[in-house]
Amino acid sequence: MVRLICAVLLIASGAAMSASAAPASAAAQIRLDPAAMAAAERLLTAMDYDRMMRRTVDSMLDGMAPVFKQSLEARTGQKVDDELIRRLIAIQGEFMRGALVNSPSMRRAVATIYASKFTAAELNHLARLYDDPVMRKWSEVGPAASAQLIPLVQGVLEGQRGELERRIKAAVLNYYAEQGRSPSS
Predict the structure, then answer these.
(1) Which residue from 135, 148, 138, 133 is spatially nearest to 58, judged by alpha carbons?
(2) d(CA 102, CA 38)
(3) What is the mean pLDDT of residues 108-137?
(4) Which tens digit of pLDDT belongs to each residue from 72-98?
(5) What SS3 class is residue 182?
(6) Residue closest to 86 by CA, chosen among 111, 69, 99
């Protein structure tokens, strides 16, 4: 039981830490053109940013249950009940929605990132693109399509885990050998 709780906390905290750290770090380090920031805000409004974030979170959660279950079972060596996974995903969803959806600090961080990468004119052009029906469709189906990639990518990476671990171990051992030390020292 303790192993299960620890595994749940490890898996859930990875997404939680990533979500909560993003707004502060993005906005704190960039000096911006005020016109670009205003244009970035217009872009977020044109793309219906809050609705897009809600759909993105919902799409992520839809694909999370099987991955979450597989990860918990692998970490604990125990079968995990689907009802427990449903409850854990509900908690994760509540947290993610609270941190990401209708969050002024997250919205400002996203606007800051856009304003740091594009000029005001480019951002205004992007905002106008959202008047196009194909772009509107992309904004509707894009989050779900992207979320479908998550299990695909995780499956590919999981299949390569042994090779990755072997290469990391070799790099660590080589590094310490070059230093004339052992990893335990």
Answers:
(1) 148
(2) 18
(3) 94
(4) 888 888 898 899 899 989 999 999 998
(5) coil
(6) 69
Joined tokens for residue 14: 């990875």
pTM over 0.90: no
Cα dist. 128→131, 140, 178 in Å? 6, 17, 56
Q: Please report, as a single letter, which amino acid is at residue 82.
A: D
Sign of CA dihedral 92, 98, 102, 107: negative
**What distance in Å separates the CA atoms of residue 81 and residue 73, rounded to the nearest whole number?**
10
Residue 166 CB-density burial (10 A; 0-12 exposed, 13-18 middle, 19+ buried): exposed
| Rounded distance between C-alpha atoms, residue 177 and residue 185, angstroms | 12
Percent of the chain scored above 90 by pLDDT? 29
Give Cα separations from 151 to 3, 112, 122, 144, 164 (angstroms): 24, 30, 34, 12, 18
Cα(62)–Cα(148) distance, integer angstroms? 9
Closest by Cα among 92, 116, 110 to 23: 110
Tokens of 115: 């304003």
* 77 phi and psi angles, rounded to 5 deg: 75, 15
